[in-house]
Amino acid sequence: MHAPGVARPDNGRYSYPPESHHPPLQTGWMATSDRIPARPGMTLWRNAAQLGTAKVLSSVLGLLWTVVLARSLGLSEFGEYTYLVALTVLLSLFAEGGFANIVIRDVASDPGALDRTVPTAMALTLALNLAACLAAIGIAVLDQPTTGRFWSATLAAAYIPANGLFNMISAVFRGHNRFDYDSTFNLIYFLLFAVLSGVALLLGWGAVGVIGAHVVRMYLVLAASAAVCMMRVGRLRIAFVPERARYLFKEGLPLVLSGAAAQVYVRIDIVVLSFVAGTNAVALYSVAARFTDALTTAANVLGFASLPVLAEMWRDDPRRAHQFTQATVGRALLLTLLAAAGGAIIARPLIRHLYGLPFGVSGQILQILLAAVPLSAASQILSALVIASSRQRALVWIFGGAAVLSTFLNFLLAARWQYFGSAASNVATATFVAVTLWWLVQRLEKERIARA
């Protein structure tokens, strides 16, 4: 998510091929010099509104649909479904946090990246996510070594490669500032799942049917997004070019590692909780986590939306990019603090009313988890600036440290206080990430001033 400028022979920071090997750069609105928004603040908030509205609406509808799932499946089967879905998300290491960020960054700054970099990025993403499928099955069976768990985990793991490719296509949309396409597919994503899982419940297929619906809708959305991308943006290929792979690993490996670490830090709580307390505890915790996911999704959209803007801004005026980031973080914190405070007030009666008394304790869990929402919003925007400034290697240490801290705290606290310990671990780790990223951004600005 950075791409400070179209690569040129005198720019040694990027290992693009010689200029003569590049396809001709486009002119008009696709040319880099013409794509810098006159009012970057408006561009960011417009993009955030487009993607955020769709993501929040999808999350809210998904949240309401989980009420149906929880009541229909019961505590045990709902816990099994939640655990397997969380595990596949955890192991979707490259869906949003690695190569996709490089694609957004480079496509936003260099139109030729669609032909040079994206095919290899998709090939690498597919290969690595196929490996993640095997890891997901292994972890699930290790947790519960039964034949039923093996087949359920195999079905759930089929989601991973389709999700990775879809996120690469979404990255292309975002790099072209086409957040409207991304937003539309977020709504379709939920609607398909609601229809397919509803049919599965009516047919009495239980948790396995719902997991199957979760997987099938991903492949349908992937096919639709690929068709739209081909018609509106350009043809996408999956191809492996060694030179492009070296570039992606050089520029993207820190983001891949930090993205993987970030997934661990966000999702390890459910996986560890299943190991130490069982899937019933997972069901109670996940109900609360669904609510915070909806708020965090809205907050995190600012990170996605700010990346293309900051990438272009950093290229021309790093000082302005830093000031813009600080102002955006302040506004995001204000909005999310108000949302979290309101949520904490209504958490307990809302959970009891929607899910019933068996899930009542989830209201207390939700009150704890809400404290992480403002921290997550700030972290997303700060991470975008770090990537825009080509300092993404620092994210490896930050999110790697968060992954280690989260894993340690979850095993320590969840073993003693179950879901309450998991919630406290989540907030503590989110605090670590936000504070460390803030310190890093301030350090980058001091270094820039010293060089000036």
Keywords:
452 residues, 14 helices, single chain
User: Could you say which overall geometry the principal axes of the C-alpha atoms support?
Assistant: globular
Order of helices and strands: HHHHHHHHHHHHHH
Helix fraction, binned, reads over 70%
Radius of gyration: 21 Å
Q: How many helices does DSSP assign?
A: 14
Mean pLDDT: 80
User: How many structural units, i.e. domains?
Assistant: 1
The proportion of residues in beta strands is under 5%
User: What profile does the largest beta sheet have?
Assistant: none
Cα distance spanning the termini: 24 Å
Derived structural class? mainly alpha
Unreliable segments of 5+ consecutive residues: 1-36
Tell me the total number of β-strands. 0
If you had to describe this structure to a student in words, what would you say it looks like?
The protein is an all-alpha fold and 452 residues long. The chain has one domain. It is built from 14 helices and no strands. Helix 1 packs across helix 9. The model is unreliable at 1-36 (pLDDT under 50).
